[in-house]
Amino acid sequence: MKKTALLSLLALGLGASSATAGDFGGRPRGGDSVRASLAIASQGEVHPGAVGGRGLAIYSKKVAVCEWNGQDVINNGVVLVKDGKIEAVGKRGEVLPPPDYAQMDVGDQWIVPGLVEMHNHVAGRFGLNDTVYLANPGLRASSDVFAGNAQLDLGLAGGVTTVLYIPGSGSNVGGQGVLLRTGFNTYEECLIKDPGSMKLAQAGNPERWLTRPNRSFMNWNTRTTFQRGIAYAQEWEAYERDGGVMPRKDPQWEIFRHLRKRDVHISTHTQIYQVVLKTITMVHDQLGLPFFIDHGTFDSWRVAKEAEKRGIFACLGPRNIDVPARGFIQWSGSNPERVQGVAAGYQSEGFTRIGFNTDSPVIPQEELQLQASMAVRYGFDESKMATLRGLTIVPAMAGGIGDKVGSIEVGKEADLLITTGDITDPRHSVELVLQLGKVVYDPAQTGRRW
Amino acid sequence: MIKLKLKTLAPLALLLAAVPAAALQPLPLLDDEATESEEEDEHWVLLKGGDVYTGTGALLRKADVLCRDGKIAEIGYDLYAPEEAEVMEISGYRVYPGLVALESRGLFGGSGSLKDSVDPFNESMTYAVASGITTAVNGSEIGKLNRGRLEDVLVKRGTFVGLSYSISNPSGRGSLREKLEAAAAYLRTYREWQVQVRSNKDLKEPKKSGVDSNVLAVLEGKARALFSSDEQQDLVGIARLAQEYGFRPVIKGCREGWIVADELGRAGAFAIIEARDRRSKNEALVRPGGSSIENAAILHQHGVQVAVLPSSTGISLGGIVGRDIMHMPTEAAFAVRGGLPEDAAIASMTTIPARLLGLGHRLGTIEEGKDADLIVTDGDLLHYRTFVQWALVGGRVVYDKEAELYFAHIRPRPDGELAPESPVDPGEDDIVEPPAEEPEEEPAEEPSEGSGDAPTEDSTEPPPAEGGSGEGAEEGPAEDTAD
User: Fold this and answer.
1) Residue A79 carries which DSSP code?
2) Which of A437, B19, B59, B304 could, after both became Cys, cross-link A414 (CB 3.0–4.6 A)?
3) Domain locations along chain A
């Protein structure tokens, strides 16, 4: 399967010198000529495709567009990138780039949307996991971001371009997550959205089994906290609607104004089916706040029908299977009669919005794709490109940024991977990463990191 | 009766010839008495019509493998098998040599020596054979995962001599060199004596006093020197030491091997590596360093014998998958990501570990006369979707996916008892789909094989991949329930 693909470099906009892409030094890898072309283009000018630069047209035998309710792939496609955004995408020959656009042809390598991770703990210094107060909706992960750190860099080499960096699950409400790009070195360049989420954690970690707040107390505590937040937001809503005395601004509760507007979602550490059921009935039904299932493992798939009815998203992981338990301590209460794939379980209940997460560093960030392939191994049906969608558009929509990233659609940010094939397979590698149209990972320049 | 005796003794004799007596004490049987009563007829198994990935470079499509009394008797086409032979029709499936795990924890059920602790009925052994492993190193012993049987477990003892050579331990380096020097000097005098004693029968054999018997065994080729080393200076030091004293080192870890691969290749080194090893370089050094996803590929290019091992060598049942001994092919797949050719990736779990353990004459490839340790898979071993359907150890079926509770429900065999009652017609499947799915686009569910030149890409994709596209056996197609 390896990479002997001959690439034809169309050097139209790049000057003739870039056409000599024969000698790669080491073993030939398909992407080299592509990368060479961009390197040349970048000398002294803005990257084609990046903000302020010329446009860029990328041709490929397979463009995995990963639309949520649309097409999977475009064979013999072209993607036009201008000013960091996707300007057009379609069949080669049908979509025609303006004459000044830089062009490259990646042959039978794929163009894939950058992967999206909704459960990341490595984009900072892991400083946010309060375990004193049980509810801290005012804490912000954005205060802890370490842009361009080594672990994010490796994740980028694995194709992960977007992460939701969230507080730990030491308390019921850990604080606010922040949505970040991984390709840049400063917080400002990386920032997509702050607040990017609110973290809710039920059963499991916040229980602290020995000194426990038990589950019914945690449910009470969560509900009460959320009700206070909602009341705060309602006060502001009334003020914005009717005027009057401006309410006092309280950073502890500000996040609930976003939640009520539904421009920020709750990422919920929830697993074990009774607990997930509680999340559904309490957060969705009773309080009406947007949330997605994060983890969702053990036997949570049993309530997938209820989640599906409500249009709820799930990002599954890092656990991928549930096994017959023969141990003395049986913490989760789930004890299937067979090795049960978690994602396969959701699918068997007709659940459609299945994404994957790593909980990095639990699974290293660069192995996000492995979460999808292992789901398939344990029974998940990957036809209709459910794996690639689960790595891109599904988590993007779960996190509320499905309009910005996660698929190759007009108007979205140009976060694109050039890969040797379906990146779900660990044998395939990422040959180039563009973020906002800019080359942010290029193995030919920096060495292969993953 | 005599015939039978000969038969049971033959492998023993073979082993005795191949393996030195002193350090290793070959003991092919777990319990010698148990085999006395083992008076069975010849046992024949015929695997019929599978694609045989021999590991020798040859791929025999739709070929037969005939096993007799635990050995591979014949490989070919339209083989004749006696009437009593157990015949397995496996066309559409692939046959690979059983995997050899160079380190393991708990696969044999207990801890400690195999003789005292083998539990061939425990779940770990089932998971292990279900993952394709047929032979595993357990502490200082090598055993067969002869599931369900107490016989023929122990293969060999004491293969390795653990040595240490580190830039951070000068005195340790000094003492290792002294030991090697003493052992080499002893061997020289011994050889001299061997010549002279022919003419002078009174000459006394040189004394071994002061000679480290382990190091001596390494120089005599009776045991392998095992180093756990990652840093390039150490690796270079080991490679040079090995060339100076004439032994082939086994290096576990070998993180920075890619930087000094030429040195390691010249030394004929074996490397046991974790393809996904990740460690940043020492930033104080200007030269390259740290781990590289290309480590396996670069080492292989330079002639190093590369074996892979995942980060966890036990069976992990916590729910996180893809990084324990059950997922050796996943680890090898990451080596392929770094550029290792696919046949070398298969060899890194079969041929190379067998050779490394000094068992290349019995294990690691599918060849006549070798042990009938075989796995039958429903696809490319390196593909994440592929499952072991049957595993054979010593010519006996020790695992059948459909017969065990763990994985039977996942993509059941279309001809098996668990297959869906009315398999979904893939064509019809698309028509039922909502129109949004754009049926003229390829769903691109074949993620591998970017270009058509690889030998692994073939038209004989196994039936399970096509048929049960849905979930477990009890479910209909997933699309039906989705509405």
Assistant:
1) E
2) A437
3) 16-113+411-446, 115-398
Cβ neighbours of A448 in B, within 8 Å: 292-294, 338
- Triad B304, B307, B311: Cα angle to 5°: 130
A377 interface with B at CB cutoff 8 Å: yes
* CATH 3.30.300.30, applies to A16-113+411-446: no
CB distance B482–A337 less than 8 Å? Answer: no
Q: Are the Cβ atoms of A1 and B292 closer than 8 angstroms?
A: no
The CATH number of domain B2-157+395-403, selected from 2.102.10.10, 2.30.40.10, 1.10.3720.10, 2.60.40.1120 = 2.30.40.10
Strand partners, A62: A75, A110
Is B471 close to A370, i.e. CB distance below 8 A? no
Question: How close, in Å, is residue A104 to chain B by CA atoms?
Answer: 19
How far is the alpha carbon of B426 from chain A, nearest alpha carbon, in Å? 11
What pairing do the DSSP bridges indicate for beta strands B388-393 and B305-308? unpaired
* DSSP sequence for A190-211: HEEEEEEEEEEE-SSGGG-TTT
**Residue in chain B nearest A27 by alpha carbon:** B339
Name the segment(s) of chain B with CATH classification 2.30.40.10: 2-157+395-403
Element (DSSP H or E) covering residue A373 = helix A368-377
Q: Determine whether the interchain pair B384/A373 forms a contact, defined as Cβ–Cβ distance below 8 Å.
A: yes
Q: What is the pLDDT along chain A (450 residues), one digit of tens a residue?
A: 443 333 333 333 333 333 333 332 333 344 444 554 555 455 667 889 999 999 999 999 999 999 999 999 999 999 999 999 999 999 999 999 999 999 999 999 999 999 999 999 999 987 688 878 899 999 999 999 999 999 999 999 999 999 999 999 989 999 999 999 999 999 999 999 999 999 999 988 888 777 778 888 999 999 999 999 999 999 999 999 999 999 999 999 999 999 999 999 999 999 999 999 999 999 999 999 999 999 999 999 999 999 999 999 999 999 999 999 866 667 788 889 999 999 999 999 999 999 999 999 999 999 999 999 999 999 999 988 999 999 999 999 999 999 999 999 999 999 999 999 999 999 999 999 999 999 999 998 889 999
Are the Cβ atoms of B322 and A370 closer than 8 angstroms?
yes
User: Interface pTM (ipTM) of the complex?
Assistant: 0.91
Nearest CA in chain A to B291: A449
Asked: is B161-356 a CATH 3.10.20.310 domain? The reply is: no
Identify whether the C-beta of residue A172 lies closer than 8 Å to the C-beta of residue A222: yes
Question: Chain B 293-322, CB below 8 Å of chain A: which residues?
Answer: 293-294, 301, 317-322
| CA Rg value for chain B | 25
Amino acid B468 reads: G
- Residues in A closer than 8 angstroms to B292, CB to CB, are 447-448
* Strand residue runs (E) in B298-451: 305-308, 374-377, 388-393, 396-400
Contact assignment for A2 to B280 by CB distance below 8 Å:
no
Please state, in angstroms and rounded to a whole number, the distance separating the CA atoms of residues A323 and A187: 41
Interatomic CA distance for residues B179 and B153, integer angstroms: 35
For the whole model, what pTM was predicted? Answer: 0.86
Are residues A70 and B454, on separate chains, in Cβ contact within 8 Å?
A: no
Listed by number, the residues of chain A in 336-355 with a beta carbon closer than 8 Å to a beta carbon of chain B are 337-339, 341-342, 344, 347-350, 352
A115-398: in CATH 3.20.20.140: yes
